[in-house]
């Protein structure tokens, strides 16, 4: 069972903003398993793309490394919840970056198409700081590799932890944080992000969650606060088909419309892309309403995000 885990910092934030509590408190509906939900919707357990105990090579240019099975707190909607936490550790899923490094280096050297290493988990910023620094230093020396990216929700759950990684962070090019609600953006979060930005570009990915952030007003406020903190909104994930999370799921059509409604009220660079991970590890697609249709090879009808009406446009070469 996916244990309840809440950092003292986030617990305090939940006391101030009870809406946040829904993300970390157990709900008995988690025990439901509707027909179409899976324990491993992204097929991370599957052997198809696994090239070692901790690495998944799904996209040709990127290698995902599961650096740990631990997180600072547990999100009840986590798509990897069957792999994260004490039950996963007890089932023998322990991760050792030290043991795996030689094989990984060998693999990346022989796969020059791999341009980016993505470190995820669990939460990479819960790995022992000296191990992460040593691991990244070695990975960074592979000449065919262009960038290193880390995914983390630590700046939200326990922002003080980021300062322990001052040796490791200079090796990181991109950091993707995970913020779902404007209330998660506190002064502590902003300071932690400022620290991360010394070396890296920082993006955000959110999960669209019913009763938490499923309104254009909340999403719009979130985007403004992210940008004011130096974070670029990037992805908004439509909830995966993971077991026991249906109470967090929003209707598909309304979700697409909600993100569509952000056009016209937010500058383009603040609008996250609503994305869906196709179950079975088949990749990610953007859920976007078509804003144009071809009426001939050179003519299209385009829909205005401002008044919703269609207008004629002709190619002019
Ligand atoms: S921080 Fe990420 S990996 Fe950890 S429980 Fe939350 S969603 Fe899952």
Characterization of this structure:
There is one protein chain. The chain is α/β, with parallel strands linked by helices and 317 residues long. The chain has two domains: 8-286, TIM Barrel; 291-317, no CATH class. It is 24% helix and 18% strand. The chain contains eight helices and twelve strands. It has helices at residues 8-16, 86-90, 97-109, 129-140, 154-157, 187-196, 216-228, 252-260, and strands at 55-56, 62-66, 116-120, 147-152, 174-178, 201-207, 232-237, 273-277, 284-286, 292-294, 299-303, 310-314. It has a nine-stranded mixed sheet. The chain has a three-stranded antiparallel sheet with strand order 10-11-12, with no helix packed on it. Helix 3 runs parallel beside helix 4 (129-140). The N and C termini lie far apart (61 Å). Iron/sulfur cluster is lined by residues 71, 74-75, 78, 80, 84, 121-123, 153. Iron/sulfur cluster binds at residues 71, 74-75, 78, 80, 84, 121-123, 153.
Which fold name is given in CATH as the topology of the largest domain?
TIM Barrel
Output the helix-strand order. HEEHHEHEHEHEHEHEEEEE
Strands in their spatial order, largest beta sheet: 1-2-3-4-5-6-7-8-9
Name of the CATH class of the largest domain: Alpha Beta
Instruction: Tell me which ligands are bound.
Output: iron/sulfur cluster
Tell me the quaternary state. Answer: single chain
Helicity, as a percent range: 10-25%
Please state the second-level CATH architecture of the largest domain. Answer: Alpha-Beta Barrel
Number of continuous helical runs: 8
Mean pLDDT: 91
Principal-axis shape: globular
| Strand percent estimate | 15-25%
Return the structural class: alpha/beta
Could you state the CATH homologous superfamily of the largest domain? Aldolase class I
* First and last CA, distance: 61 Å
Overall domain count:
2
How is the main sheet built?
A: 9 strands, mixed
Instruction: Enumerate the spans where pLDDT stays under 50 for 5 or more consecutive residues.
Output: none
Radius of gyration over alpha carbons?
20 Å
The count of β-strands is 12
